[in-house]
């Protein structure tokens, strides 16, 4: 792998005004998950107008969500088949529009270096950055390929866009990935950009059935109250001792919901408990199940308990934890690029939650780095992204791609 920036050939740079104009256009298109058709068409057209030969990649999940949508893909082909291929991944969707905005949630208003709008930070800022970086890279001769994937449904329950990329083999020839999610705001420790997040905890979602015994509500001792036992189990799981990892920190457990009981004067015979659990490297779905079963055994509940997990379209849809080695050539390339663009060494950190990067770093087994512009109020009213960081991320990605791909 060669460093194309070692000589006098400058790294590709993006046009700051074009990048922010693009971001404004993206933010002004409402794109809650499962409603991305307009924005995917915009991304496709933007790439096509610049001669990048984009293609739609269909995403279908008919059984649970009945979702139909399209990722947008584009590839820059390098000159050397033996050189590495870099994947640039960003999602086009946002959470559902929040009602508490005091202005148009898709305004794209710029004030004091901040651009406002639902999804401005998570992650249309990162999407604009990789799109303009990709365009800048097209003007350079690269040894390796660069694959841009603008994916749907990252914010939804299953990450169907990147899941489908993996299942359809698009990641098979890739050697590493950059995901431009906002990093510092969701890091486990306080860091500032430029920052490289080199891993993330994973997640399992318990869906637990508690089966008691019905009885008249005036004589509860004759029944077994499934709601009460579900509450005891929720409290015990809340205190569960989770794993630790030197980079990812500790796991966590958060009971989310108990459902059960509705009839007047009847002891509830059924309850359902849903529990979120973040896991670290070394913890798996199987170990998580064993932990919950151990807790149930220790409680000696009268109810019968079935430990399950949230229904998923495919058993392979799992947010596994991962860590990328600090010495990997992608990390080295991004670090050098950050020093070149920003004049400082980047901070290293680790993501506190989950996203498409888990699919890439764990399921696809790709060294994966999160690098994205920071902001505030992610998923809430008043969300904004720092415009200068959007441009910086674009420049770092473009510079690093040249270093990594040769």
Automatic annotation (TrEMBL):
Give the InterPro entries listed for this entry: ArgE/DapE_CS (IPR001261), Bact_exopeptidase_dim_dom (IPR036264), Peptidase_M20 (IPR002933), Peptidase_M20_dimer (IPR011650), Peptidase_M20A (IPR050072)
Question: What region holds the Peptidase M20 dimerisation domain?
Answer: 199-301
- Which keywords has UniProt assigned to this entry? Hydrolase, Metal-binding, Zinc
The protein's required cofactors: Zn(2+)
Q: Which family does the record assign?
A: Belongs to the peptidase M20A family.
Task: Indicate what this protein is called per its UniProt record.
Answer: M20/M25/M40 family metallo-hydrolase
Q: What is the native source organism of this protein?
A: Halogeometricum salsisoli
